[in-house]
Write the structure tokens for this entry.
Amino acid sequence: MGTLNLINWALSKLSIVLVIGLAILSSQASSDELLQASDLPAVYSSIGELAGRGTFYAAGGRLSFRIDDGNHYHGYAGPGVWAQEAKGVRTQGLVYGIKDGDIVSAGYLIRQVDLVSSKSFHGLTLRELDLPVAYSMTVDLIVGETEDSNQYLWLWHFTPTNDVAPLMLSVGQLPLAARLPSEYEVFACDHLPETRFCPGMGRHFTNLSEQVVSGYSRQPTTTGDDGVIYGEAAGKLIFIEYVLGQQDLVNGVSWSGAIPLGGIPIPPIDNVHILHFGTDGTTRGTYTVHMYFISEEIYLAWEAEPSTL
């Protein structure tokens, strides 16, 4: 009996050592994935500190807000409009967060007045460089000298919020939709009841019980990944999404706590679109933040679900 207890004790200690070792390796791997400020194109230089998030670099060393893509469309009409435009993905307005020489975040500045005016944005690339996977997102209001100069910093973070980095995927590795928890179900695109596949977007899955509680928009005080949405096409997950209330953005609310992106393993984000849902002149709509793992030119071309990916 004493020998058995000794073996169990030894196995217990070995398990602890393995867990600690994996944590160290995971943390080290996450650190090793980070690119350096020296990897940025030569046109980038420091623009100073933003929103208490550290030092940022921008093209030409100048602060530049993202130019909007208009408010002449809303909701599901957006991808169809974008597919007809020649703008595509672009780096205009892109900023990089730097800490100890590492690129720890990337994102865009968007004027609050444009969000109040129900304008949408697409083609926000996060692939100018071979950036690693983003573990979380934040949205911070930066108060300007005048109300019209207020801006929101939409930021994606490449370092985990905890000491142990969750397992993630490489570029191009699309998760299987079958890996979604059983409580996730299809919603959205009710006007296409046979497939629920949104043209130019994909099929949306979420935990509807969480959405009902939150009113279908992420609350600034929410913790965990409540309200997260995943997009699917041909049996694979192609985006992760959160929804923010337009009235919160009008009121200057920030989502400063990390909005997690690692509920299930995902690959690095390719591009983002921030699309207004509502009607002309409203400030009580919502903004959907779709973060795609595939290129915009692929999904905007979908009039129906592709057979394979």
About this structure: The chain has one domain: 34-299. Residues 34-299 form one domain.
